[in-house]
């Protein structure tokens, strides 16, 4: 069994190299529940025609996508000698581009969709491979993320992002579905939050820095495409 551990701006993952193996959903879920512990999830590294990322949250359930998980996936492919710099791989959210940039990992995010779905607190419902609900707050440090996030997560069946607007930057905290707690970072949440902030604040910028409890992420806008960049470490 080939297991390694990665962290991406505070998100922590177990990497399971299953290239050349065939595992059922139930076998994967069992491996997650036995090995993840207090980490955020497990990533199964597979190869069909292309490399394939299969991501499971801590609760043993598959999620269509994970932004920081995808960045960790690219880092693992590089560390394991599968790739040199760039890669196109598949996921349940579609094809993903991965790039090594200045010692960091950048990925092209899935196409962003919006919806007018509303919870009991005003916010913006956005899907970046997985659903997010972005809520603007005055002081993100004083939000009861666990209590309010839990309530809204169950109302909307989505990840809940609390966002404080800075000077063309944002600070974010996330209650993550499937982890069922606040996480130190969330790549899809950072992307959703930056996307909503850019539109609502009418920012004409190509890059938004996102501060999360685990560090900093960059969300980069190139035409209709959106990229997520940040550091990844093999721990």
Largest sheet properties = 18 strands, mixed
User: What is the alpha-carbon Rg in Å?
Assistant: 17 Å
- The geometry reads as globular
Spans of at least 5 consecutive residues whose pLDDT stays below 50 are: none
Structure description:
Helix content is 21%, strand content 44%. It is of the alpha+beta class. The chain has an 18-stranded mixed β-sheet that branches. Strand 7 (94-101) and strand 8 form a beta hairpin. The two termini are 18 Å apart. The mean pLDDT is 97.
Strand and helix map with partners:
Layout: E1 2-8, E2 11-17, H1 25-35, E3 41-47, E4 51-57, E5 62-63, H2 67-79, E6 87-91, E7 94-101, E8 104-108, E9 113-115, E10 124-128, E11 130-136, H3 145-156, E12 159-165, E13 169-176, E14 181-183, H4 187-200, E15 207-212, E16 215-222, E17 225-230, E18 233-234
Parallel strand pairs: 2-3, 4-6, 11-12, 13-15
Antiparallel strand pairs: 1-2, 1-18, 3-4, 4-5, 6-7, 7-8, 8-17, 9-10, 10-11, 12-13, 13-14, 15-16, 16-17
List keywords for this structure.
globular, 235 residues, 18-stranded mixed β-sheet, alpha+beta
Compact summary:
This protein is an alpha+beta fold.
